[in-house]
Amino acid sequence: MSAQLDIPIDRSSPVPLYHQVVQGIEQAINDGSLPAGTRLENEIELAQRLNLSRPTMRKAMDELVRSGLLVRKRGVGTQVVSSQVRRHLELSSLNDDLMRAGKKPSTTLLSFSHEEPDEQVKEQLQLPAGVKVYHFTRLRSAGGKPLALMENWVRDDAVELSEASLSTHGLYDLLRGAGINFRLAQQRIGAANASTEQAKALGMEPHAALVTMQRTAVDDTGRNVETGSHVYRADSYSFEMTLVHR
Hints:
By secondary structure, the protein is α+β, with helices and mostly antiparallel strands. It has helices at residues 17-30, 43-49, 54-66, 94-100, 119-125, 163-168, 171-177, 196-202, and strands spanning 70-73, 77-80, 85-88, 105-115, 133-142, 145-155, 182-193, 209-219, 224-233, 237-240.
């Protein structure tokens, strides 16, 4: 049984017709009206019902497939893959964002050590002599689906961490619980292709697209408290930002 979409089309709007279709389907996926696995009616039927041309409908579907929200399967048709976790560019943790989005986050701790930092980490955190770091890698999932691999280094003079605490709590929850108040972060977002190891952990094909993020967070005393290098499944995760004209 195919889902029948009710997408309002405003022909007087300056928004292109194909993009109105894209927005309508994105909204239905994000609000749960079209859950993962839902099969859509075919493009010809949908175009006829919305009184749109087939090229317009094809362009909309192609964009949604490229963005990772839909997938075409031979003998099955077009299906919803998943709704993306959309993260606003603000100083929050992935665990916080998943909770706000109504997802069920879970964490698998892949590695943990308390060690002397190498020169790069020492420079990023501006560590004084004698301060060590907690170095750990976690797999974060949402609703049972792998979403992100997160590698972090946290200075040990700011908080005490353990394998048990990191397996059951978000990192920023633990840091805030230790009395750390964050002020700002330096963050760089990019893209990469998944390595064999990353693809295996995230349940992806090797060389599939990843969103990357490097961040160093600063507390209200001016200390660089933690730095991290994270990768996210590009078919399930995106950043949102508001641009201001100056």
